[in-house]
């Protein structure tokens, strides 16, 4: 499964080996994950939603070549992070019936594809339930140690913009300017971080926004509307501004909350460099994704009946249309 170690994980490996250990203090006993489809390892399989990926060709480069509910051909960034810290080579989904608290003691994923800060999910409630199960399983002292010393990975935000604010069916743009909406999201994020801090989180890696205007679907829309195969700079500018706001929030909370060690993991520049200069990273294709035509296919539209799905995902930066890098 060499694809799990090539090219796109460079962004993650840099953060894991250099940035995150320096910020959070080295070895951790568990990885605890919150977020959206970029880090969902299969929770949506158990949720009533159309946003699923538990079918082929998803997972074709995963262990046993089986789809797991990850929105990728192989592993996702948090799987690689877990392995880099000497834990399991993947982080199991909390709602997956194949796993139990003995598995979750080393790492657990609460992320749900399609979620965002402006949508309601059960991730925090599931985390509270997990804490009770963990204490019953390992005892109060060890449970306290795991919760305090675990690395918490938070990765979400793109959906709030591309599938919410900028969606033709959204009403948010009618009530907020984009600057006001960003401020609204920052308030929700601050509240979330303070909630998991109160529940014991101390080491947090918070992922910023990618150059979301360069996602295959956004480029396809520009192409259809006659503006050429280019990134939508308006969306990229929003991502840059929001990342600045996130960085400021991380700095603020590190100063306000005693014992908090939170690092801002910004994927923007590294991913944009891959998109603009793919050959330097071993890629060949950036304008479209691997699955189907590479323009609009994701979830149920990215299926084994698609005749145009690429045979070699290693050549593509993106796996499906939203912005899921191939792994």
Question: How would you summarize the topology of this molecule?
Answer:
Blueprint: H1 9-24, E1 31-35, H2 77-84, H3 101-104, E2 107-109, H4 123-138, H5 140-149, E3 151-155, H6 158-165, H7 172-175, H8 178-198, E4 203-207, H9 216-224, H10 233-256, E5 261-265, H11 268-276, E6 318-320, E7 324-325
Overview of the structural elements:
With 327 residues, this protein is of the alpha/beta class. It contains eleven helices and seven strands. Strand 6 and strand 7 form a beta hairpin. Helix 1 packs across helix 2, helix 4 (123-138) crosses helix 5 and helix 8 (178-198) runs parallel beside helix 10 (233-256).
Supply database-style keywords.
9% strand, five-stranded parallel beta sheet, 327 residues, 7 strands, two-stranded antiparallel ribbon
Task: Give a brief outline of the structure.
It is globular and about 55 Å long. The termini are close together.
Strand order of the largest sheet: 2-1-3-4-5
Report the average pLDDT across residues: 86
Main sheet summary: 5 strands, parallel
Radius of gyration: 19 Å
User: Fraction of residues in helices?
Assistant: 25-40%
Approximate strand percentage: 5-15%
Total E-strand runs: 7
